[in-house]
């Protein structure tokens, strides 16, 4: 690797560490000419997923767009950015695992909904209300009722307050 200080092409790796999630390797290097130390990171390069929109247009999968949706849904909720970043990484990993080149936008929406359901019930309702284009209060009530029913069926789910 080319030294950023002197441009020499020979270096030596003096330390390698894997990230907590196992997707990145951090390497400390030293230039064999000038002894300058620097850090490099290795990541697996995934093929770019394309999102197929409702109107059949295609665009590159945008991590930031997914994160923005999560952040908006979790606004003023006790959810950390680290948790949202992890959720985005999980969503993207699942999409790469399940799809080779293209993924329908509806599939991304479903994954986001699943993650939000587990993270925060209020954020989930916010996101679902926009995603499914709720037009009246009855739709909110119906969704909350379904959530409550699901919680009763699955005791491992978070308990929601009774309205």
Summarize the structure.
This protein has five helices and six strands. With 163 residues, it is an alpha+beta fold. Helix 1 packs across helix 4 (121-131), helix 2 (81-98) runs antiparallel to helix 3 and helix 3 runs antiparallel to helix 4.
Overview of the molecule:
There is one protein chain. The chain is an alpha+beta fold. The chain has two domains: 11-43; 50-153. Helices cover 44% and strands 20% of the residues. It is built from five helices and six strands. The termini are far apart. Its cofactor is Zn(2+). GO terms for molecular function: ATP binding; DNA binding; zinc ion binding. A zinc finger (unnamed) spans 3-34. One of its GO terms (biological process) is negative regulation of DNA-templated transcription.
Annotation keywords:
ATP binding; nucleotide-binding; Transcriptional repressor NrdR; 163 residues; metal-binding; 44% helix; alpha+beta; elongated
Distance between the termini: 62 Å
Given the structure, what is the number of helices? 5
Q: Could you say how many structural domains there are in total? A: 2
Radius of gyration: 22 Å
- Rounded average pLDDT: 87
Strand percentage = 15-25%
- SSE string, helices as H and strands as E: EEEEEHHEHHH
Q: In which order are the strands of the major sheet placed? A: 1-2-3
Shape: elongated
Poorly predicted spans: none
Q: What's the multimeric state?
A: single chain
Going by helix content, strand content and strand pairing, the class is alpha+beta
* Main sheet attributes: strand count, strand direction, barrel closure: 3 strands, antiparallel
